[in-house]
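On clarity, I found the account of how folds are encoded harder to follow than it need be. An entry of this sort, consisting of the sequence and the corresponding backbone structure tokens, reads as follows:
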Amino acid sequence: MAMIAPFRGLRYNPELVKDLSLVVAPPYDVISPEDQRAFHARHDHNVIRLILGEVFEGDDSARNRYSRAGEYFRQWQAKRMLIRDRTPALYLYQQTFRLPRTRELTRCGLIGLVRLEEFGSRTVFPHERTMAAAKEDRLRLMQVCHANLSPIFGIYPGRSHEMEQLFKAAQEAKPAIDLGDWDGIRHRVWICQDRAAVRALQAGFTSTPIFIADGHHRYETALAFRDLMRAKERGDPAHEQRRPYNYIMMTLVSAEDPGLVILPIHRLLRHLPGGSLEAYLAQVARHFNIERFPVPGDPEAGAAALLGCLQRAREGRHSFGLYGGGESGYLLTLADERILETEGAEGKPTIYKRLDVTILHALLIDGPLRHHGLAALPDDALNYTHDAVEAVRLVQRGEWGAAVLLKPTKIAEVRAVAEAGLRMPPKSTFFYPKLLTGLVIHPIVLDEVVET
């Protein structure tokens, strides 16, 4: 069962930071090198210095971006740049945003602690694969800071009546945090310290599974950190299970929340298998029906044409938008799903084989590569972006040979793959908007216990 708990969060001191938008940042793994420099320049106390510090010439094993993050974290608390709430709380987090050609959307989440569980326990489910280097990076940071600096993004099935009631009541009060970010997204946070309300929420989650949307590396890192801390535990054995290292800060969002948005992550190919667009189309025509349509020269209009064609594709059909430059785009629609049994992900269940991202790689990338005698793409031959306009622009500039646009993965597919004990291929989902880092931090104070 999922165990959630309130905690005494660390937050930026509003008396010292008048504009909170200057000190927050996105999750570390979506920050480009250019964005990293920009966030460093925004404010001397921007949270980027904790989650993704700069690398300097002369750094060594003792003095590096991790050691500096630890020093900043301690200094900011000592001079009360970061101050800790006096009472354990759950934090109500609301994001209001707009997508192109859509009405305004709102997503509501609960920031609290969730007890760490091994993935095999069928309480917390992953859906993406992780990489060892990223987990080693986050573990080094966690060891020097002893904190969850950013929340994991978790999704739960169904709806929580208790949470809905809390948000309804919250609308009548002034939020503790209210800011607009660089993308025009509004972020608001209310603090719930009502013990009865907290207990009701805890009771409502006892039989609720949680699916990780974003933060797989940080979750697995927290498991490793927990095991290291347990090995060092010398306190009261009765308190060991309630130490804060047994928990992780997570933002929980209902799978039925109307503001829960998954964007597709499109693929950019340096070169098309076969060497030309014509040869590539001739090869994939074995498995796909191909429809040509005009693409305007303006990147925004071109992306709109490609996405519009995808949206008009018949529901339930596996369709992809291909753009190789010039004035034409192509809608590729799988002709016969029976091919997935022989050309799909070998040994995987049907739900996995029928994911658009699985079909894309099996029949539009890996299959054509094998046909031309190549085992796999070179490391620099494939790139990813959730921005269709950027994908079209990069092809038009000649920086990439072709773009393949996808429809978004459905939340039901994420859940089905996770419940089957599987991981999706890399870059299968882009949950939007991202949770901000720096709104609330969970300090892991080793001699404390969590209020359960």
